[in-house]
Design a protein that fits this description.
Blueprint lengths: L2 H15 L4 H13 L3 H14 L4 H13 L3 H8 L2
Helix pairs in contact: 1-2, 2-3, 3-4, 4-5
Length: 81
């Protein structure tokens, strides 16, 4: 198992213990984004922001991912909260 897979497994284990762990959602989003899995990153970043909407850096990453998949309206919705 590679480092990214181990990191995702660790974050998923944290979410099994506490699904509201916004850091774990953010970590999964970052890994998904790094792998160009933008839809997965968007899902994780949205969950992270639903739990902690004051994370401007995650809002920016969500905006970037939604732009990559061609959905800038969604990006604006989350960035301009």
């Amino acid at each position: 198992m590679g480092q990214k897979e181990e990191a995702i497994a660790s974050a998923e284990q944290a979410l099994k213990i506490e699904w509201r762990n916004f850091q774990a959602h953010a970590a999964i989003g970052l890994i998904e984004m790094d792998a160009s899995h933008y839809d997965g990153a968007i899902e994780s970043f949205r969950m992270c922001l639903s739990l902690n909407p004051w994370l401007g850096n995650i809002s920016s990453l969500l905006s970037l991912c939604t732009t990559k998949v061609g959905n800038s309206v969604t990006a604006d919705k989350f960035v301009n909260k």
